User: Which sequence fits this backbone?
């Protein structure tokens, strides 16, 4: 019997060493350890033996059984690992092939620019205010201290709907509306479309956008105006941006200024973007003229304020290096897609 | 305003380099467009004298000149110019010299042109005689006698022959082009700019000499003046006898050229020079053409005609101010003189007019006549009447200096109400309050005095009187600016406003942003199209002749058809964009626009138009069809808080394919149906009109309505605890039966456990009878309280099938 056991073990060992598949190994297990397997067969034949012999043979048989079991499971592990590896090899893909595109759209660069400015000032407590595109001559010129014979009033400059109504040529038309409607003090931004009788070329469009900024309160100073715009310039064009305020003239502000920013392309040393000057003109601003406050019923002794008007297209064109304003209104998808 | 820095130095000392001059002038309020060097770029160009002119042996149009350039031997130079004469002083580009150019008839070359000895038609030419253009001066400033010819230099230069032309004539200068804002007409004059420079650099302003020597006759013996209209604020006349018309001296020509003016002759040049100096336009009449030696300033008679200096006959009206003599008009006041009183070569005695006319009247006259001149432009902007006398005196002084006439004593000056500058009270505290500064009174007073203002008063109150030339300072706030610019904007501190306010956003603002984000997430790009529209583009879009979309807000001064009216809908703009992209071979487009539309105010025609926001989506391309757009519309509206949607077939709206168009409908809180917009496949004719040669899809939604009906409140529901079961059904129904109707009827049964009904297949063709279609739905059943049994589900499902059989004659498909 003992020899039979030895033989079973030896055979199992040999067969396992030759086995190359999981199925083959499984067959071996059935053949040796299965219900009708060789080992079972031997154990079944133990009935005729004495208790001592039974005990002895039982121990040997168990030893063989566990030995074969170990061999089987290690063979199985090895084969499984092999199979897994083969599967991985088979399933290898070319990771450099393109992914399936998920298409997303982008906001128009004009919207993006407006939102960028709004976001800068939102965190400082500014509100957004809007007013009609079509507004009265009073709100647009008269209330803004614009002289009777100001060229902007001409039909060659501003679109008229009738004698008293225009397409606003600037968002400043909203100023007196805001003064009458809002409770003082306030800080607002007024983004919107504006229209002028400009023949379209690379830098002119009869339709364009402005953002008006308006602050009214007690003790608002020109220093506040400078500080607010300097902060905006740094956020829009980078932290190293410097600002320069030059005296200028607008009917609705006094004192008035134009703001230049240091050229973000060359940093101020002079390049084609800044036409060699190191500075780029960005916007007009000033302390709101008392006449404009009076038109809106504001107490000019108690309150002071400032106003800013900036061209959205101009900022967008400078920021993104767009050399023709007409591109912004052509809406070529290859153009818009670039503003991701 | 072109300012020669060398000329400016006649009135104020400037001791800084030109760049610093410019920078500081900008910061004190005189903005600069450009600063240009003139008189540079030449080397080895000599001053020469023409000693001999002979005909060229082989060319009719050429002459051979002997030019004295200081050496022992004259140079032989061939030229084609015909304005030269023996004894003329001229610029000579000798062998191996360089001129800035451009040469006659050639383009300008960077770095100039080298001139060498050569032969012209066989005759040696040892250089070139130059005209102003060849030496870098614009043709429009070339002196009249040198126009299109050689530059003839007036005066006697015999001691300087052979010297460098640019050095000996002191040509080098910087010309600064100042941008003068409309509030500062006083700066349209050299003295005005000198006043600014003096204040900026702390220097003293030197006024020109206007004092003439006494003569033996009085102006009033020759001329009398009568002013009959308020449009003339002042009229000053002086008389010059024995006038000799000749070329102006070099110094005067040089000044005019730098300022962009062409020297003509001494009398014209002097009046132009004084105009540039003071900003006061001047006019000279031949006294012999003034009938009765009497000037009457009055408005014209309507219907009269008058021939101005430019030989155009002009129709007058009774608002136009004229200068008349005892019999007839001789000039249009402030605009242009008449042909009948022009200075002639034989003129002996002239009347110098230095007058002040009301700016608005000159503007109106000039506009009605369509005639703008240097003088009218200046009057329009506003001139100080107190300048008249000084300017007239200055003209006389220059005549005396140039020895080109005899100046008679005194003037005839009609000035009924002399202009006085208003004294304004400006508070030190207010100025500092507005600027955010702490500038002491003494410093402010210093600024004012440097600008020739007088200051009185004490403590906080400064009583400031400006010179009358400054008409831009009627109020306290104007002095805030004067202090600010003199103090320097760059010296003001930077702070942030300390004013409490909470951010608020206008109607729709956040909704618009949400819609943009949602649509971008669906792969649509935002576009921005013009707010303009017109009837033609609506015709192209298939919009009916009498539809509401034609209630245009019309522009009364459009720039053309493109800007004729304001848009009432966004779709046509979208179609244009789709067409433009299609024509550029862009395979597929998904785009949207959120923008304002405008509708004529039908209730109050004089009131402002109605403005509202619309939203349009447009698309074409391989993966687009009606249902892809519908999917976008549904997802967008769901996100914007519109929960119940219905799509109602529409076959009458011309923009869209009659079988592929739907009105988008929801219901308001009262259960009333509200139309939110319309969508569909673009009608093939419309698509063709816009050059879209493929199926395209569009919608137009009324954004304000969406905002109004939006309910974005979120109420949490526990996710279902018990599993759901689904049952499919495939039915054969009539072709015309709408899926929406089937769904609506099923939903109307009110089966509590029916949670969802979803179409998953529509089939027509073999195995389905003609005029029928097979539709397959998946229905989901769930109970929130327990797991449904098969029996319960079957019972509900069968009732649905039965209802459909009964109601629509549907049969189950095997």
Assistant:
């Amino acid at each position: 019997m003992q020899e039979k056991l030895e033989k079973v073990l030896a055979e199992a060992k040999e067969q396992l060493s030759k086995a190359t598949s999981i199925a083959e190994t499984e067959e071996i297990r059935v053949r040796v350890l299965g219900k009708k397997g060789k080992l079972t067969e031997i154990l079944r034949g133990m009935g005729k033996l004495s208790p001592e012999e039974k005990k002895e043979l039982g121990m040997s048989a168990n030893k063989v059984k566990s030995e074969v079991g170990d061999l089987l499971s290690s063979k199985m592990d090895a084969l499984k690992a092999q199979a897994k590896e083969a599967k991985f090899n088979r399933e290898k893909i070319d990771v450099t092939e393109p992914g399936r595109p998920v298409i997303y759209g982008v906001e128009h660069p004009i919207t993006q620019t407006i939102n960028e400015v709004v976001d800068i000032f939102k965190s400082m407590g500014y509100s957004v205010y809007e007013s009609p595109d079509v507004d009265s001559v009073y709100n647009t010129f008269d209330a803004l201290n614009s002289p009777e014979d100001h060229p902007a009033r001409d039909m060659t400059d501003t679109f008229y709907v009738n004698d008293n109504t225009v397409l606003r040529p600037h968002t400043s038309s909203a100023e007196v509306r805001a003064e009458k409607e809002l409770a003082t003090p306030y800080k607002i931004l007024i983004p919107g479309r504006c229209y002028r009788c400009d023949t379209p070329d690379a830098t002119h469009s009869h339709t364009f956008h402005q953002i008006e900024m308006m602050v009214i309160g007690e003790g608002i100073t020109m220093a506040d105006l400078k500080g607010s715009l300097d902060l905006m310039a740094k956020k829009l064009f980078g932290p190293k941006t410097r600002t320069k305020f030059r005296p200028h003239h607008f009917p609705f502000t006094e004192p008035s200024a134009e703001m230049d920013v240091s050229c973000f392309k060359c940093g101020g040393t002079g390049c084609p973007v800044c036409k060699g000057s190191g500075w780029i003109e960005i916007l007009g601003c000033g302390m709101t003229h008392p006449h404009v406050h009076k038109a809106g019923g504001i107490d000019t002794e108690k309150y002071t304020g400032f106003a800013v008007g900036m061209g959205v297209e101009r900022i967008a064109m400078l920021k993104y290096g767009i050399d023709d304003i007409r591109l912004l209104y052509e809406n070529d998808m290859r153009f818009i897609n670039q503003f991701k | 305003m072109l300012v020669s820095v060398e000329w400016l130095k006649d009135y104020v000392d400037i001791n800084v380099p030109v760049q610093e001059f410019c920078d500081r002038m900008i910061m004190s309020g005189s903005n600069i467009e450009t600063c240009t060097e003139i008189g540079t770029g030449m080397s080895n160009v000599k001053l020469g004298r023409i000693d001999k002119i002979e005909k060229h042996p082989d060319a009719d149009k050429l002459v051979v000149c002997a030019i004295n350039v200081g050496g022992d031997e004259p140079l032989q130079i061939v030229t084609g110019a015909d304005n030269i004469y023996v004894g003329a002083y001229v610029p000579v580009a000798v062998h191996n010299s360089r001129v800035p150019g451009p040469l006659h008839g050639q383009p300008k070359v960077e770095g100039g042109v080298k001139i060498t000895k050569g032969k012209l038609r066989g005759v040696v030419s040892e250089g070139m005689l130059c005209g102003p253009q060849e030496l870098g001066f614009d043709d429009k400033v070339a002196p009249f006698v040198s126009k299109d010819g050689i530059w003839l230099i007036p005066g006697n230069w015999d001691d300087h022959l052979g010297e460098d032309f640019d050095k000996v004539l002191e040509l080098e200068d910087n010309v600064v082009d100042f941008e003068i804002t409309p509030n500062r007409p006083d700066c349209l004059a050299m003295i005005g700019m000198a006043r600014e420079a003096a204040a900026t650099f702390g220097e003293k302003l030197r006024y020109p000499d206007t004092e003439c020597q006494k003569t033996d006759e009085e102006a009033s013996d020759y001329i009398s003046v009568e002013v009959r209209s308020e449009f003339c604020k002042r009229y000053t006349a002086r008389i010059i006898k024995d006038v000799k018309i000749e070329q102006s001296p070099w110094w005067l020509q040089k000044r005019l050229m730098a300022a962009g003016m062409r020297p003509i002759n001494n009398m014209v040049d002097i009046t132009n020079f004084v105009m540039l100096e003071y900003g006061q336009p001047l006019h000279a009449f031949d006294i012999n053409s003034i009938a009765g030696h009497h000037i009457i300033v009055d408005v014209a008679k309507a219907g009269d005609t008058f021939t101005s200096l430019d030989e155009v006959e002009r129709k007058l009206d009774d608002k136009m101010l004229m200068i008349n003599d005892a019999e007839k008009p001789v000039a249009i006041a402030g605009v242009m003189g008449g042909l009948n009183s022009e200075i002639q070569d034989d003129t002996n005695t002239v009347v110098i007019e230095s007058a002040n006319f009301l700016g608005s009247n000159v503007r109106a006259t000039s506009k009605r006549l369509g005639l703008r001149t240097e003088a009218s432009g200046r009057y329009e902007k506003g001139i100080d009447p107190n300048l008249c006398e000084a300017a007239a005196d200055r003209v006389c002084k220059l005549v005396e200096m140039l020895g080109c006439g005899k100046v008679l004593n005194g003037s005839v000056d009609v000035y009924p109400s002399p202009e006085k500058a208003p004294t304004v009270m400006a508070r030190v505290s207010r100025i500092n309050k507005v600027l955010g500064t702490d500038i002491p009174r003494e410093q402010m007073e210093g600024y004012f005095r440097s600008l020739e203002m007088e200051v009185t008063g004490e403590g906080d109150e400064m009583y400031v009187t400006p010179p009358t030339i400054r008409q831009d300072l009627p109020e306290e706030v104007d002095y805030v600016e004067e202090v600010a610019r003199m103090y320097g904007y760059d010296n003001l501190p930077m702070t942030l406003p300390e004013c409490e306010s909470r951010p608020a956003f206008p109607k729709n603002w956040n909704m618009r942003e949400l819609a943009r984000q949602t649509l971008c997430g669906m792969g649509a790009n935002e576009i921005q199209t013009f707010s303009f529209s017109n009837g033609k583009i609506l015709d192209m879009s298939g919009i009916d002749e009498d539809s509401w979309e034609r209630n245009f807000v019309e522009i009364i001064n459009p720039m053309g058809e493109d800007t004729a009216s304001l848009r009432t809908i966004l779709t046509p703009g979208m179609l244009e964009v789709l067409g433009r992209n299609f024509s550029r071979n862009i395979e597929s487009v998904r785009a949207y626009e959120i923008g304002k539309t405008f509708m004529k105010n039908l209730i109050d025609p004089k009131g402002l138009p109605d403005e509202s926001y619309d939203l349009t989506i447009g698309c074409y391309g391989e993966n687009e069809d009606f249902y892809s757009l519908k999917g976008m519309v549904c997802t967008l509206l769901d996100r914007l808080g519109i929960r119940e949607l219905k799509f109602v077939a529409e076959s009458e709206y011309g923009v869209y394919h009659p079988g592929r168009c739907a009105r988008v409908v929801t219901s308001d809180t009262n259960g009333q149906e509200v139309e939110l917009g319309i969508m569909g496949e673009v009608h093939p004719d419309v698509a063709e009109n816009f050059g879209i040669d493929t199926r395209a899809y569009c919608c137009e939604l009324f954004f304000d309505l969406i905002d109004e009906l939006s309910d974005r409140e979120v109420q949490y529901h526990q996710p279902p605890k018990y599993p759901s079961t689904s049952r499919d059904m495939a039915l054969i129904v009539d072709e015309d039966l709408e899926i929406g109707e089937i769904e609506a009827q099923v939903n109307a049964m009110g089966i509590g456990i029916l949670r969802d009904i979803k179409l998953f297949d529509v089939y027509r063709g073999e195995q389905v009878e003609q005029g029928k279609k097979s539709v397959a739905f998946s229905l989901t059943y769930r109970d929130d309280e327990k797991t449904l049994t098969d029996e319960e589900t079957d019972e509900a499902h069968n009732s649905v099938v039965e209802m459909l059989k009964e109601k629509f004659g549907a049969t189950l498909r095997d």
Remarks:
- The mean pLDDT of chain B is 94.
